[in-house]
Design a protein that fits this description.
There is one protein chain. Helices cover about 15% and strands about 35% of the residues. It is of the alpha+beta class. The chain has a single domain, classed as Jelly Rolls, CATH 2.60.120. Strands 1, 2, 4, 5, 6, 8, 11 and 13 form an 8-stranded antiparallel sheet that branches. The radius of gyration is 15 Å and the shape is globular. The model has no long low-confidence stretch (mean pLDDT about 95).
Length: about 190
């Protein structure tokens, strides 16, 4: 599995999954267009000044067949992340959260505001994952404290810690449609 090299001190890992897996996920999005919702933030709020997107939210426990191929590749990426950052795995047991989102950003849409994935509201979130499903210039993800913008390259799958240390926002493309799939590895709480 090919790695996208980031400075190790960023705690952001990136590896590539096959293009055809990405194509299948975009097709899954379009095949389920009637089940999409407006992009939400925080506790399921639609706030256009913060984020504008359209999302197909997949419950992996009910529709596993829609993402089983992706989930297999994501597991390999997680293994590579744990090899690179072994202490990310020396914590309480965690697993893939049941909801995974395919997000579609039309031109001028995106996650505009700086944010982290765990600000206390979602304390169970341990790691974040995101895969770019198409390649675009000026459409990656900007990480505030790392002074880093990741490229939007089809198949590039990122994993990073969910805390404030990895405050980030989307890079807004004004000309093209951007697709990602994203979610979390959450601590297993009783």
């Amino acid at each position: 599995m090919k790695e996208h090299e980031f400075d190790k001190s960023t705690f952001i890992g990136g590896w590539y999954i096959p293009d055809e897996v990405c194509d299948n996920l975009v097709e899954t999005y379009y095949n389920n267009i009637t089940d999409t919702v407006k992009g939400q933030v925080g506790n399921n709020a639609v706030i256009p000044s913060t984020k504008i997107s359209t999302e197909f939210i997949i419950n992996k426990n009910k529709k596993k067949e829609l993402i089983s191929e992706y989930e297999s590749h994501l597991g390999k990426v997680l293994s590579k992340y744990k090899e690179k950052y072994p202490y990310s795995n020396k914590v309480s047991k965690y697993s893939l959260h049941k909801y995974i989102k395919i997000q579609h950003y039309k031109p001028n849409e995106g996650f505009f505001k700086w944010h982290a994935e765990n600000t206390g509201t979602h304390q169970q979130r341990h790691l974040v994952f995101m895969t770019y499903l198409n390649t675009l210039d000026n459409a990656g993800t900007e990480f505030y404290h790392q002074n880093l913008t990741t490229p939007c390259i089809k198949g590039l799958t990122l994993i990073w810690p969910s805390a404030w240390t990895h405050t980030h926002r989307g890079v807004i493309n004004n000309d093209a449609h951007k697709f990602i799939i994203t979610g979390w590895f959450n601590f297993d709480v009783n």
